[in-house]
Specification:
Elements (H helix, E strand, L loop, with lengths): L2 H20 L8 H11 L4 H23 L8 H39 L2 H7 L4 H39 L4 H10 L3 H27 L4 H34 L5
Helix pairs in contact: 1-6, 1-8, 2-6, 3-4, 3-6, 4-6, 4-7, 4-8, 4-9, 6-7, 6-8, 8-9
Length: 254
């Protein structure tokens, strides 16, 4: 890819990102399309989010309690698990799962519509593809990924509770009391801010790549792979940047 092509792709991404947000306030937006995308992105992703979150919580609790046991510090298991899941592991792991399932689906669906000229047909009939195709997907990601993250965090903490009580033989009441102590402003802000940004990035990247599909079946495969890879990279990079910004705003130092 040449520098000129890279700049053109970045321009398309920025234009799509802004236009998709402005489309939310357009009267031509069909809320039925939004609800369909929410059902696909939210209800369709619930099972995988549940499984991923459950076993992450169980594995994390098992690892931490095992390492803390020789030091006599098993009582801090819940504190470490809650901070890790709410701040970092929960939002990132669920966003990666969301990108793998929903982001790839967006890219492949829009790519197939480009290759079969369905997007051109929308323009012929006077419909704006940005309003009909992109804005519902962006809006559904902005709504559903934070909800899925909140559900996933709760499931992970429940999985950690099972390991803490059934395997480590600790008090369940003490576990939940420590969880409650860690539900402070910073942890909640960090845990809720990231899914909104991740959802927006995943939807915009996937739609941009999907609408840029060229070259038949191989081009569609390349677009789907590119959407997942770029979304994965951006999730990791932006997670670090958001954490740094929140630390700076709240005056916290490492």
């Amino acid at each position: 890819m040449t520098l000129q092509q890279l700049l053109a792709e970045l321009q398309n991404f920025y234009v799509l990102s802004i236009s998709s947000l402005l489309g939310i306030f357009r009267r031509s937006l069909k809320w039925r399309d939004v609800l369909e995308q929410m059902d696909y992105a939210g209800a369709g992703s619930f099972f995988i989010v549940f499984l991923v979150s459950l076993f992450i919580g169980m594995a994390l609790s098992l690892q931490i309690s095992t390492e803390l046991a020789p030091l006599g510090l098993k009582m801090y298991t819940a504190k470490i698990v809650s901070i890790s899941i709410i701040r970092e592991i929960g939002p990132v792991a669920i966003a990666l799962s969301y990108a793998g399932r929903v982001g790839s689906g967006m890219a492949s669906e829009l790519g197939s519509m480009i290759l079969s000229h369905q997007v051109d047909m929308l323009r012929v009939y006077g419909a704006d593809p940005m309003i009909r195709l992109v804005t519902p997907r962006v809006l559904s990601s902005l709504v559903m990924l934070p909800i899925l993250t909140a559900i996933g965090d709760a499931v992970s903490l429940a999985g950690g509770y099972y390991i803490t009580v059934a395997v480590s033989q600790q008090s369940g009441a003490f576990y939940w009391s420590q969880i409650g102590n860690e539900l402070n402003f910073f942890n909640i802000l960090s845990g809720l801010t990231k899914p909104f940004i991740f959802g927006y990035l995943i939807a915009c990247i996937s739609c941009t790549v999907g609408l840029s599909t060229r070259g038949g079946a191989q081009g569609l495969r390349r677009a789907t792979t590119t959407a997942v890879v770029l979304s994965t990279i951006m999730i990791i990079v932006v997670d670090f940047l958001i954490t740094q910004v929140l630390f700076f705003i709240l005056g916290m130092q490492a």
